[in-house]
């Protein structure tokens, strides 16, 4: 997907907004932390198990200015923002991050790392996908490696390949894909017990039945 053909010309002053909401982070290192979520449209990764397929096409979503998005954040008590997608690395995220940082709001991102990342980030969660590998620059930038486990053996092997490329400070998580939770959780637990450099991430928000 060519960035300059994205809605708004790829400049980042307006973004195709799928949804935004204030909730608790449900996955990975920041599980349980209050955060404002900004889901941006546009993704060319095509994960078969994606639970946000509505976000794939950027053209069907309203273009919203970063000023308007910022105001929505400021209307809540949120001190942290999570930018997700779709694949947010498709977009120029400098304008959004600059606005958030003017208000001392922490910036977190969830990305497959398929493209070099713009913006200023306090936490980068890299969730790499086997069908479109991360840009090489993303491995060393990741604070958190979160590997989704659908086909347990193949996805765990993929996770280990990625873990060899991240920095020593990067935290490692294996997360069962929601529809395969019952089938895979025992394998994941056993693997983490035998490989304690890894931790288990669960989609806690789905257990809590919150957005």
Word description of this protein:
Helix 1 (66-74) packs parallel to helix 2. Helix 4 (152-163) links the parallel strand 7 (144-149) and strand 8. Helices cover 26% and strands 25% of the residues. The protein has a single domain, classed as TIM Barrel (Alpha-Beta Barrel), CATH 3.20.20. By secondary structure, the protein is α/β, with parallel strands linked by helices. The chain has helices at 66-74, 94-101, 136-141, 152-163, 181-194, 204-208; strands at 14-24, 34-40, 63-65, 80-85, 106-111, 123-126, 144-149, 171-176, 198-200.
Quick recap:
The chain is an alpha/beta fold and 211 residues long. 26% of the residues lie in helices and 25% in strands. The chain has a single domain, classed as Alpha-Beta Barrel (TIM Barrel), CATH 3.20.20.70.
Feature tags:
211 residues; alpha/beta; TIM Barrel; 9-stranded mixed beta sheet; 26% helix
Classify the helix fraction into a percent range. 25-40%
Strand order of the largest sheet: 3-1-2-4-5-6-7-8-9
* Backbone shape: globular
Helix/strand/pairing category: alpha/beta
Largest sheet: 9 strands, mixed
CATH topology: TIM Barrel
Poorly predicted segments: none
Number of domains: 1
How do the helices and strands line up, and which of them pair or pack?
Elements: E1 14-24, E2 34-40, E3 63-65, H1 66-74, E4 80-85, H2 94-101, E5 106-111, E6 123-126, H3 136-141, E7 144-149, H4 152-163, E8 171-176, H5 181-194, E9 198-200, H6 204-208
Parallel strand pairs: 2-4, 4-5, 5-6, 6-7, 7-8, 8-9
Antiparallel strand pairs: 1-2, 1-3
Helix pairs in contact: 1-2
């Amino acid at each position: 997907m060519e960035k300059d053909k994205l809605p708004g010309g790829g400049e980042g002053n307006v973004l195709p907004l799928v949804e935004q909401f204030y909730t608790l982070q449900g996955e990975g290192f920041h599980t349980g932390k209050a955060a404002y979520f900004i889901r941006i449209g546009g993704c060319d990764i095509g994960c078969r198990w994606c639970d946000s397929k509505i976000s794939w096409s950027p053209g069907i979503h309203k273009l919203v200015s970063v000023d308007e998005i910022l105001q929505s954040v400021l209307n809540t008590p949120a001190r942290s923002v999570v930018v997700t997608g779709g694949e947010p690395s498709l977009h120029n995220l400098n304008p959004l991050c600059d606005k958030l940082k003017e208000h001392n709001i922490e910036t977190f991102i969830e990305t497959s790392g398929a493209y070099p990342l713009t913006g200023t980030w306090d936490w980068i969660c890299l969730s790499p996908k086997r069908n479109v590998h991360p840009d090489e620059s993303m491995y060393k930038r990741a604070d958190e490696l979160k590997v989704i486990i659908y086909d347990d053996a193949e996805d765990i092997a993929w996770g280990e390949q990625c873990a060899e490329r991240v920095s020593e400070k990067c935290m490692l998580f294996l997360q069962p894909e929601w529809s395969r939770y019952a089938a895979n959780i025992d394998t994941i637990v056993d693997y983490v017990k035998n490989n304690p450099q890894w931790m288990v991430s669960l989609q806690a928000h789905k257990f809590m039945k919150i957005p």
